[in-house]
Amino acid sequence: MNNYENHFFLKPITKSTDEDYIKALQIYVEETPKEIRTNTNEISHWLDKKRTTKSFEIMVFVLFLDDVLIGFSQLTYIRSQQIVIWDYISLKSPYRKNSVFLIFLSMMQNYLVAANKEITYYLAEIGNKDNGEHIDRESAFYKRIICLEGYGQVMSKYYNFPLGLDNCESEFESLMYLKTNDNISYISKETFMNIVHAICYEYYYVWYSEFINNDEVHLYKAKLDKYYSSIEKYNCEAVHININYIQCPLFFSGTANKTSGTVPSKKRKRYAQVPFLLLAIIITPIILAVMYNAIFPLLNIDFNNISTFISGIIATLVSYFAIKLGSNK
């Protein structure tokens, strides 16, 4: 019987000169619609500068499947609100499957947990042009996946904020989806507006201030002010903002909790012992030969056949290391 397996590997990217990052950007460019695509030079800039940024931190990952680079992802962590925004998750066309996307998402969440990030909410922004009639392909796919992961729609007006001053197509209504450690039914208006304020002014404003002059910064801030005010006005009489899960009927079935959440992950053992095994096999005969000729006679230890003695010791060492390596798989 044939055995089938897949090996997924998540690689965090720490610098823009990483060759895998450069290759993964091509996937991002090919799979992400122009109206929601951030300039790759800007991503590279903030990737190299992230440790000096106080308000937010971007993280970039690439995904391998069976040693083939198949995915790119960028997420943003806004410190003041302890929120994670899934900015981009792009997969090569042959691998754009629900199962691969969910594994990618799960591995990144496990990474964040291992990094001890304090996270209150995970957020996803889904395009909603013309009330969803002209939703882009990426948003449609994304919406289906986050539904399975237990995200609820924040029932408020929301926008895809402008990606700079030049990409006019990037400004349109969108939907915010939210996930926490429970399927909450609402959040307070103050909490929601604090989140929106952080996204506008601690993330977008800081991001684009690096690439435009002072006059343009004022123009860009005016755009953000317009959208922020619109959202604030929409919720002026609200006490809290409802979170709606109705669009995903799986949440109301008895098996809902079995399909959401992260897949348990385990660190793969590395075979660092192999070089030591080879070194031991090479050096051991030399040491034993010295012991046989110089030390053993002084101790009145007699071996009639040095080759038998040495081969026996080497066989024992090889067996020991083979058992250790086998137990680490």
- The CATH superfamily of the largest domain turns out to be Gcn5-related N-acetyltransferase (GNAT)
State the end-to-end CA separation: 21 Å
Number of strands: 10
Q: Give the biggest sheet.
A: 10 strands, mixed
Q: Specify Rg, calculated over alpha carbons.
A: 28 Å
Strand content: 15-25%
Relative helix content: 40-55%
The tally of helices reads 8
Mean pLDDT: 82
- Any guess at the CATH architecture of the largest domain? 3-Layer(aba) Sandwich
Low-confidence segments: 249-266
Tell me the layout of helices and strands:
Elements: E1 8-13, H1 19-31, H2 40-49, E2 56-65, E3 68-78, E4 83-91, H3 98-114, E5 121-127, H4 137-148, E6 152-154, E7 159-160, E8 172-179, E9 186-188, H5 189-209, H6 214-234, E10 240-244, H7 273-298, H8 306-327
Helix pairs in contact: 5-6, 7-8
Structural notes for this entry:
With 329 residues, the protein is α+β, with helices and mostly antiparallel strands. The protein has two domains: 8-258, Aminopeptidase (3-Layer(aba) Sandwich); 273-327, no CATH class. It has eight helices and ten strands. It has helices at residues 19-31, 40-49, 98-114, 137-148, 189-209, 214-234, 273-298, 306-327, and strands at residues 8-13, 56-65, 68-78, 83-91, 121-127, 152-154, 159-160, 172-179, 186-188, 240-244. Strands 1, 2, 3, 4, 5, 6, 7, 8, 9 and 10 form a ten-stranded mixed β-sheet that branches. Helix 3 (98-114) links the parallel strand 4 and strand 5. Helix 5 (189-209) packs antiparallel against helix 6 (214-234) and helix 7 (273-298) runs antiparallel to helix 8. It is elongated. The two termini are 21 Å apart. Mean pLDDT is 82; it is low at 249-266.
